[in-house]
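Much of our argument rests on the idea that a fold can be written as discrete symbols. Part of our work consisted of pairing the sequence of a single chain with a tokenised description of its backbone. No coordinates are needed to read the tokens, only the vocabulary itself. The record that follows shows the chain in one-letter code together with its fold in token form.
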Amino acid sequence: MRNMYKNRQLQCRTRLLLVALLAATLVGTDLEPESRAARIPLLLDIPTLDGTFDLVTTAVGDQGDAHLDCSLASYTTDEAGGLQIKYHDFNTKLDRPVPANGVATLSDVSAGRIAFTETSTSGSYVVVFDTSTQTSKPIADVSAGKESNPSIGGDLVAFEDRSYSTNPNLSEIALNELGSAYYARLTSDSMFDKNPEVSPDGSVIVWEKCQPTGLGCDIYSSIKQGQGLYLTQPLTGAGEDRGPVTNGKIVAYISDKSGENDIYFQPVGGGTEVPVPIPGDQRNLAISGDLIAFESQVTVDGETEYDILVYDVHTAKLYQVTNTAVDDVLNDISTCNGAGRIVYSAPQSGYDVISFTFQIPSSPEDDISALIQLLQSFRLPKGIESRLLPKLQDALKAVQNGDTASACSSLTSFISTYQALPGKKLTATQLSQLTSATDKIKSEIGCQ
């Protein structure tokens, strides 16, 4: 999800090159909702995800490469004349710097801890900063000074280690289990192992394994079996496969096997590969729960740019988040306690970090289950409930089996049955609640 930015940072640590990343000078954008809706949508048949946009920071200079875990975000900034990491608490609205002995880049955040690359004249090291104790510690007692690009999840940090070869394109993936003495190489070969991503609970690591040229990339995963024990397997073969992310259950990545850069996902242990066919190129994936956020290519008035979209792997539904006349880039997503948040970077006076807060879309199964609970909460006479409840249960089973026609029939029968109840068995408010909920479900699953 941040591979383009990572590569530039590894080549040049003295300046935040977000403008160079986009390869164009772009005009500013406005956060007002009406300006964001002024363009033709990327795809006319996908809904816009409702939510609120806010500026995370208005500091001078450029800010980008934001990463997110619930209410805590980290990002890279050059506002003080050199690259440093700052973090933003969405609860307090406060920004604070992460102390570092040199240039600080390439951060990741999990459970109040921020892992980042610290570069000085002695080399580059992976450091973990604890926001609760305000203390920093290198991830391992090593002195080679060739560590970079960490990912953190739970108590596990994975990173690139180039200390085993003089060739910078022969990096290995190394691991450190925080709070223990475990530090080891996960890979040991003559390949270019790079861009590790750790699941939120620290149980899975995914990465790219490429030829030393940087081409011929495949996706690998490693599943933790116990302390210091990891089971590694290749997941892909055909095409160039890049940018893996994982929620601990599936791994999503970009592959060009279709002729363009599309999203694919499969179980972390291997299995059926599922494509997500969307027109144009996709890039920079992020995942949390069932939601994959990414940048998708769109051409408007002959000009190509990227907007942020979200794909729900549970419902196979696509949602549009941004709809601007500029590139919206380097996104990350986090879902916590029923709410979701996306952070990304876009040009204002410079490049700023923007957040988008939204309610996680529900699935038809969730909505039918909620309707069943609503009906039961009315405490209707047993004879009445026994006439209504089976119709919703049949609809739920049909949806779970992918039988839309039967689900629609059961829902229509449910409506007809409660509307035909004699007397005032249901209040006007109850009738309105049932009708609104049922109409929403029928719309979701495409009933005619």
Remarks:
- The helical segments are 3-11, 18-22, 33-36, 364-377, 382-400, 404-419, 428-445.
